[in-house]
Fold this sequence. Notes:
Oligomer: single chain
CATH class of the largest domain: Mainly Alpha
Largest sheet: none
CATH topology of the largest domain: Serine Threonine Protein Phosphatase 5, Tetratricopeptide repeat
Shape: flat
Number of strands: 0
Amino acid sequence: MEVNDRDKYLIERYIKASLTPDEEVEFENRKGDTEFSREVIFQSDLRDAIFAVKRDKLKQRLKHSNNPEASGKRIFRLQYILAAASIVILVIIATVALLRYESPNVDQLYAEYFESPPNIVAPMLKSDEDKASTYDSAFQLYEMGDYKKADQAFELLRDDDNVQFYQAMCKLNLENWDDAKTGLTSIYHADGKYSKNAQWYIALIEIRLGKIEEARLSLTQIISLKDHPYQADAEQLLRALNTL
């Protein structure tokens, strides 16, 4: 199975030794997948290579400081070789990492501009008590940030504009990118009350997935609409995107 964004997140947390108990269980379950295991090895080796370069440079620096009688030319030559080797290794590591992953700047842009919309539906709902209770509970779960349970609760409700949009936002908060984009695209094309909101979040997903050209097109379309609620944000984000 191809390594997905959730896998990358788990591997990063594993390398940093910051997995939660639930994430540890999820990580162990994924280790049976060949591609996942290879990615763990690659990322671990990547980290070790970076540490090795730094460690070797520090060792040589300590050796030189403890050996004042060493030849100046020899020290200079050795430092030059080490520096050149370090640069080559780091360039290779950085190049491979960039080819395999989105730029960290893309992640930063997404994090800076993404904000989960607040629950504005349940408090305004007027219906019979049973329906209100079922309906309200789904939105209250969303409001509490329990997106997994909220997603499940929305799944049991009759589809309407509110349910479709907030369920898509649950999937987005859960980093289920493909399902979130599918839901938001459907909302956008329906041209309902959440259409423009969906258009904005689609652009953010494209940025998060590194689909820069698609994101630029989406943002340009938003900017062209003078009454779009995200027009100013889209202008700022497009300028930032063009600096990458």
